[in-house]
Specification:
The protein is α/β, with parallel strands linked by helices. The protein contains seven helices and five strands. 59% of the residues lie in helices and 11% in strands.
Length: 138
């Protein structure tokens, strides 16, 4: 199983020591099977202010994934599918989440998230796998 992390679990880990501990515990066994979507990287980078926060994010979290080739961009097909889904009223204004979902579905990844919006998105993207943070070690 390949996991990908949604932005909210990473932001929570940065803001709450207990969530950081939970993320670290998850990654202690799941890191070899974890990738990041460039969509999440963009959301994290956009929210990292001031420049010191952005630098810390890059050096301490993103760079190790990048060095290992584990930051992946959505395909053109995922972008097209996301556009079609976002065009529906149920998913309007959720482009990043829908794009992440389309990418995850295409590659068979499981999204680790606490975002309830993925329940609605799953209705439009059949076969999408979502796990509430943090899945137990298999």
């Amino acid at each position: 199983m390949i996991y990908t992390l949604d932005t909210n679990v990473l932001v929570d880990a940065l803001r709450q020591p207990a969530e950081l501990d939970r993320l670290k515990a998850f990654l202690s066994w799941a890191l070899p099977s974890t990738v990041l979507s460039s969509v999440v990287v963009a959301e994290l980078t956009a929210g990292a202010r001031p420049p010191k926060a952005r630098e810390a994010l890059e050096q301490q979290f993103l760079a190790p994934f990048d060095r290992r080739g584990r930051i992946l961009a959505p395909s053109a097909a995922a972008w097209r599918r996301a556009g079609a889904v976002v065009g529906t009223a149920a998913s309007a204004n959720r482009l990043c989440d829908v794009l992440l979902a389309c990418q995850a579905r295409e590659f068979g990844w499981t999204i680790v998230t606490r975002d309830a919006d993925f329940t609605a998105i799953r209705k439009s993207i059949t076969g999408l796998k979502v796990a509430a943070p943090f899945p137990a070690r298999p």
